Amino acid sequence: MTDGKRRKGLMAASALLGGVLVLSACSGGDGDGSSSGSGTKETQQQADEAAAKKTSEADIKIAPKDGSDNASINNAAKVTVSKGTLTDVTMSTADGTKVAGQISADKKSWRPTSQLERSTTYKIAAEAKDSDGRVAHENGSFTTVSPANSFIGNFTPEDGSTVGVGMPVSINFDKAITNKADVQSHITVSSSSGQEVVGHWFSANRLDFRPEDYWQGGSTVTLKLDLDGVEGASGVTGVQQKTVSFKIGRNQVSTVDAKTKTMTVTRDGKTIKTIPISAGSPENKTYEGQMVISEKFKETRMNGATVGFTDDDGKGEYDIKDVPHAMRLSNSGTFIHGNYWGAKSIFGSVNTSHGCVGLSDAKGANDSSTPGAWFYDNSMVGDVVIVKNTGDKTVQPDNGLNGWNLSWADWKAGSAA
Questions:
Q1: What is the pTM of this model?
Q2: Cα separation of 88 and 82, whole Å?
């Protein structure tokens, strides 16, 4: 073979060998070069293990469930963590208003520190760490129950107040209650005196509580509302979870006798004052019965048109803008109050009013020496005023806070418990 042919032959062999080598390199994953693929798998496994080690074990739970609605405004919102501790929780309304809350001492849970608002969307963002310091995050959102789907009870007397012995616990619900037994079973009223206290439904919206006899002076009465989540009617649940208490003051009962035209004031069983009065005229008699002072006004306006006393022109038969020392005895307009416009001679001798009980007084309500001022200063909301010998009917027990006009048997018959 000539040198030229030999060089061409070597070049061809070299090219062929190079092709084989290239093919071997491309197919090495399926042949002896499989160790290279194994190394790739091991690298991926190591990466997965490393990533797993970086994920926090802390498990955060947010309640209510994300996206839920009709949530309770009292007990629903809560954040808990297992396998870790909470480091930060932020709760806010949709407009960004922050809600105060507190992480527990063991850093395992968080709750808001105030009652939530109804028909409001809240967002919660929580952060926790596990034992290795790895951080976990969780977010949630929920909407609280709407006013249309919930009910509340407006109650009297107020927490911390001191009232007279006749003051019932009166609850007025903002929705008609059809499940009366269930609602009443979640309301308790108790007295430090040990007196039995029973509830009475005057309507689907009003529930009052009282003992058989007046509260014992100096006792403490406690009202507990545990209505959160209680169904009051179809699709309507309670939202209140509250405990309040009030104190009963001294035992003061005043008896108005329209026949003798006097009022006898007794305190703790002893007569402390007798006051001349002027009750309702024969044409406008004062209700009889046991009435409870529900409001006090140093001065107030009394317009006859508001209670049906009008003249031929439709105007009130009277309109006095500064009635002194007025105390309400019924919702329909019965008051015991001072009177400065009548002659002093009528008190103790003639019944002249439109149905109220009048006491001699001075214009401006600033003369403390008058009978009207004395009685006002020595009376409190919840005191009992008994009216007799007027010749009129007994005041309805739901006309004001006057349930004492029902016998104990009739009172208990109105309980749904």
A1: 0.80
A2: 15
